[in-house]
Amino acid sequence: MSKYLKRLVAPGSWHIPKKVQKFVMKTAPGPHNAGALPVGVWLREHIGLAQNASEARKILHQRDIIVNGRACRSPQIGLGVFDIVSIPKLGKHYRIQLDKRGNLVAIEIPAESAKTRLCKIRNKTTITGGKVQLNLAFGANILADNTYKAKDSIVVTLGDGTAGEDRFRIVDHFPFAEGNVAMVVGGKHSGKVGKIVEVIMTPSSVPNRVILVDESADERFETIDEYIFMVGRSAIAPQLEASA
């Protein structure tokens, strides 16, 4: 299978020039879907640390790029919404987010904010011993109590890569509920942030509908629950507010 795809058909959320070259790196299977932005493309097209794919591979081979607390070695690994990327040699830290046009952008954040990550709970399962396992949308699984539900968001620590590190400890929780704040991460309203005013349950295979309101723009819009990513309670979480 090819490792590349034509730039003309690359996801619009990548926000890259379409006619500069014919091909661009393809996202490898991993924690996100095919619409995630490959690390190699991000290094070259978004922040300019590499001029070509070969330079991107060299940077990654030196373990200079840390994604969600772990060194990233493959240029095809995808970056998705709320991933944390650190470049220790430059002292730079970024959070991957959606702008108001639905494009994946890197927001520079302080080092303290890079120690945690906002995660969506995809579902939860009961494993051996009756323990509850939370299956997170970016591929990680953690053990927790039965307080948390699918579609909720949690904030977890990422650790520092050392022995005995404090990794995947839950430090905050944003329930999927009316009155709380969410970001839309898919569909025509991708990138918008609003307060949930109503969840319309659909007793069928059709996704549940969610009505949100953006009070700052006095706008009311609708999406499906699959596209909802909780980002706060009565207001957006302070660490995300400046970049929303």
Structure in a nutshell:
The protein has 3 domains: 4-111, RNA-binding S4 domain (Structural Genomics Hypothetical 15.5 Kd Protein In mrcA-pckA Intergenic Region, Chain A, Roll), CATH 3.10.290.10; 114-174, OB fold (Dihydrolipoamide Acetyltransferase, E2P); 181-238, SH3 type barrels, CATH 2.30.30.
Explain how this protein is built.
The protein has 244 residues and is mainly β. The protein folds into three domains: 4-111, RNA-binding S4 domain (Structural Genomics Hypothetical 15.5 Kd Protein In mrcA-pckA Intergenic Region, Chain A), CATH 3.10.290; 114-174, OB fold (Dihydrolipoamide Acetyltransferase, E2P), CATH 2.40.50; 181-238, SH3 type barrels. It is built from three helices and 19 strands. The chain has helices at 39-46, 53-61, 238-241, and strands spanning 4-6, 23-25, 37-38, 66-67, 70-71, 78-79, 84-87, 92-98, 104-108, 116-126, 132-136, 141-144, 153-158, 167-174, 181-184, 193-200, 209-214, 219-224, 228-232. The strands form five sheets. A five-stranded antiparallel beta sheet has the order 5-4-7-8-9, with no helix packed on it. The protein is globular and about 50 Å long.
Helix tally equals 3
Q: Reading side by side through the largest sheet, how are the strands ordered? A: 5-4-7-8-9
- What letter string, H or E per element, gives the SSE order? EEEHHEEEEEEEEEEEEEEEEH
The helicity comes to: under 10%
Flag low-confidence runs.
none
Task: Give the CATH class of the largest domain.
Answer: Alpha Beta
- How many strands appear in the DSSP assignment? 19
Radius of gyration, in Å, reads 18 Å
Biggest sheet architecture:
5 strands, antiparallel
Assign the CATH architecture of the largest domain: Roll
Strand residues, percent: 35-45%
Based on Cα principal axes, name the global outline: globular
Structural class by SSE content? mainly beta
CATH topology of the largest domain: Structural Genomics Hypothetical 15.5 Kd Protein In mrcA-pckA Intergenic Region, Chain A
CATH superfamily of the largest domain: RNA-binding S4 domain
Task: Return the domain count.
Answer: 3
Report mean pLDDT, rounded to a whole number.
Answer: 91
Distance between the termini: 37 Å
